[in-house]
Sequence to fold (116 residues):
Amino acid sequence: MTYAIIKTGGRQYRVAEGDAIDVDLLDVDPGKTATFSSVLMFADGKTVTHGTPIISGAKVTAEVLEQRKDKKVIAFKFKRRKGYHRAVGHRRKLTRVKIKSISVGAKKAEAKKIEE
Fold:
């Protein structure tokens, strides 16, 4: 099974072709493609390639499905016997993407060098 670990929005995600994941808000319209170039690791079932810290030439392309908001998160502060309570909530803005392809360009170049 081929998969990659990408980094976007300060978080890391394990993705495979055909996966649909929610990432932090991207400035891309629905229906367009987004490219993630910070690929930290790539595995194809036989070999595992990891970067230092990223794999040069590797990229993951994805189709943007929708822009949406996450569930509401309530931060409730309370101090007993003081009459103090505060409720603050927020909804994180997300982009849902579907992974189309994972390509590792540098890996193919290394394989050619070994053969020569």
Observations:
- The first helix runs from residue 105 to 115.
- The two ends are 29 Å apart (CA to CA).
